[in-house]
Amino acid sequence: MPLTSKPLRKLGFLTIGLFDEADPRRGHESTLEIIELGERLGFDSAWVRHRHLQYGISSPTAVLAAVSQRTSRIELGTAVIPMGWENPLRLAEDLATVDILSGGRLNPGVSAGPPNHYDQVKGALHPDTADAEEFGHERVRRLLDCVRGERVTDFRGVEGFEVFSDRVQPHAPGLGRRMWYGGGSLRSAQWAGEHGMNLLTSSVVKAEESEDFAEIQLSHIRTFRAHHPDGDRARVSQGLVVVPTDTASPEQRAKYERYAQQRLPRTATPQGPARMMFAPDLVGTSEDIAERLTSHAAFREVEEVAFALPFTFDHEDYVQILTDIATELAPALGWRPAP
Questions:
Q1: Residue-range definition of the domain harbouring residue 95
Q2: Sign of torsion, CA 39 42 45 51?
Q3: Res. 133: pLDDT tops 90
Q4: Confidence class for position 4, pLDDT limits 50, 70, 90
Q5: CA–CA dist 150, 112 (Å, integer)
Q6: pLDDT at 60
Q7: Is 312 inside any structural domain?
Q8: What is the number of domains present in the chain?
Q9: Residue percentage of the chain with pLDDT more than 70
């Protein structure tokens, strides 16, 4: 029997796709294999993180295009694409193309804000317009307009043998309803709701009205739904770091516990000038994690999750964690695998 009156309806996972600089293909292949495994285990969705100038996935649309040809059912998401690095029109073309190739399975997640270390990278990223670039919600709104088929030019017609459209092509019907916003503040939650997006919540939030992580995240979810046209039916996915140990070896359990302990101090109080709060990583048996989740105020408000895989583990660790999530933890939360 599920441990909560609202059983988990959609089960997803999130990976950063780490690779070795000397052998990047091996790391990318591992990511593809992990997502293939997720589909076999019945997961409803797989999500990839986005990392620029680091040793993680820098081009999620390219990776998910490859995944789309090696899977047939699992939904594919980005969590999240930072829009400060992107041209909204060009990104809309890439997203629509991958959605078409996947048969309508893409769930793009994006976020606003300036690129990390912008002063150091702006000369390469925006050499002629660095001081004029807008990195707020307006950039996300432009992407939404492009994805949803709004006109982007006042010309359409034929020139010689070439035919031109006045909106982004290909146009992917339904993709506009599958756009997600990765928000960690009340303002972002409200904006996402007002613009009809879905909301991705993660293990990081901004401490605005409280220093209790679950309480903060709950306020974001309720603010989002209060401003969304769909109200309480608006989609929200939670993305905590979850590491079940049911079938882990003693060595794996020790590794997982060290990882969580090293990251635990940052969860005690708000961090930095932005007062960011981090959720503790959940490591333990599926029974233990299920009990902790069902007592989490924000988890009780959602029916979808994208459990985040830790950054630095090995391929065989991810296989064990995903298998335990799908066969032990998620069923304890009321989830049933897709056929």
A1: 10-332
A2: negative
A3: yes
A4: very low
A5: 21
A6: 98
A7: yes
A8: 1
A9: 98
Q: Identify the DSSP state of 326.
A: I
Q: What is the pLDDT of residue 324?
A: 98
Q: Is pLDDT at 338 greater than 80 in this prediction? A: no
Give domain status of residue 192, yes or no. yes
Residue closest to 330 by CA, chosen among 6, 10, 56: 10
Average pLDDT value for the chain: 96
* Cα–Cα distance for residue pair 336/339, rounded to 1 Å: 9
The residues near 239 (Cβ < 8 Å, ≥ 6 apart) are 14, 47, 79, 200, 201, 202, 203, 305, 306, 307, 308
> What CATH code is carried by the domain that includes residue 56?
3.20.20.30
> What number of CA atoms fall less than 13 Å from residue 151's CA on the CB side?
5
* pLDDT the model gives residue 130: 97
Residue with tokens 């307006």: 138
3-state secondary structure of 72: coil
Q: What is the DSSP letter of 279?
A: P
Distance (Å, whole) CA 321 – CA 324: 5
In a domain, residue 338? The reply is no
What's the pLDDT at 1?
38
CA neighbours within 13 Å on the CB side: how many for 40? Answer: 10
Residue 326 lies in a domain: yes
Could you give the C-alpha distances from 334 to 4, 175, 328, in angstroms and in order?
8, 28, 11
